[in-house]
């Protein structure tokens, strides 16, 4: 519980119910909502009913199970519709997609995570990989390392503290020394590269998107198949296009 007089506990509990659906394989029963949220049956039932009435949950009339409702998607639309950075960068993403025929995405920093907000997929990409809203860690993704390279040393050390480096694949770097070495390369060349560290079979490049003070807001990503490209060849072919897109954005917003 957040200890602040401005915090409304009942609203927080409603969000705990919505958060139950993060990572869920599908619909949830009331019992599963109780278990995931930590609420008792009466509270879980009341919050689920209220959220359903407001359109943020839907209940199957036959199974009585719940799923997220279209109200959640409506908020996503308005988030993107009013987000100046996403609007400004979308033409550059479209051009990168056309020029490279690779998967292109924009992510925004949310604390210790990146959240994908715009994605232009390839024809062969898996459905789930093409969806916006996916949250990924900073430490083992190209976009995350591009962002980390722009943070001060204290922030980087916090992100690399013991227990913070978790392997996503057998090739994920899991020591602070190894990640620091990669961050040094990012600062030298202007982009990050990750091969098979977050998703097996994927090679990814990313460059940070920063504000006027150099604070990283997110990252522009480009990724393809590591079975078709070595990291070196992928970077040689596509990093100039990625860096050019970032340079165009910075010139337009200088």
UniProtKB/TrEMBL annotation:
Instruction: Specify one Pfam family.
Output: IclR_C
Q: Which organism is it from?
A: Delftia lacustris
Q: Which UniProt keywords apply?
A: DNA-binding, Transcription, Transcription regulation
This chain's protein is named IclR family transcriptional regulator
Residue ranges occupied by any IclR-ED domain in the UniProt entry: 71-254
Q: Which GO terms describe its biological process?
A: negative regulation of DNA-templated transcription
Matches recorded under InterPro entries: GAF-like_dom_sf, HTH_MetabolicPath_Reg, Tscrpt_reg_IclR_C, Tscrpt_reg_IclR_N, WH-like_DNA-bd_sf, WH_DNA-bd_sf
Q: Which residues form the HTH iclR-type domain?
A: 8-70
Q: Which SMART domains match?
A: HTH_ICLR
Superkingdom of this protein's organism: Bacteria
């Amino acid at each position: 519980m957040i200890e602040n007089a401005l915090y409304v506990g009942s609203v927080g509990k409603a969000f705990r119910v919505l958060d139950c659906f993060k990572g869920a394989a599908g619909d949830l029963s009331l019992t599963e909502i109780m278990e995931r949220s930590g609420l008792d049956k009466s509270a879980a039932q009341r919050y689920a009913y209220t959220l359903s009435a407001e359109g943020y949950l839907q209940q199957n009339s036959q199974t009585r199970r719940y799923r997220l409702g279209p109200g959640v998607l409506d908020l996503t639309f308005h988030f993107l519709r009013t987000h100046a950075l996403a609007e400004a960068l979308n033409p550059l993403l479209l051009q990168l997609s056309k020029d490279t025929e690779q998967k292109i995405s924009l992510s925004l920093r949310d604390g210790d995570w990146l959240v994908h907000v715009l994605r232009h997929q390839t024809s062969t990409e898996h459905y789930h990989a093409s969806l916006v809203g996916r949250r990924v860690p900073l430490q083992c993704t190209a976009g995350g390392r591009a962002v980390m390279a722009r943070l001060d040393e204290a922030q980087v050390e916090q992100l690399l503290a013991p227990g913070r480096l978790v392997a996503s694949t057998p090739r994920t770097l899991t020591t602070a020394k190894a990640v620091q070495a990669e961050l040094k390369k990012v600062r030298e060349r202007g982009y990050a590269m990750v091969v098979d560290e977050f998703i097996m079979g994927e090679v990814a490049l990313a460059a940070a998107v920063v504000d006027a003070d150099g604070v990283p807001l997110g990252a522009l990503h480009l990724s393809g198949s590591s079975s078709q490209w070595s990291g070196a060849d992928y970077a040689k072919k596509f990093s100039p296009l990625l860096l050019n897109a970032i340079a165009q954005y910075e010139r337009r917003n200088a």
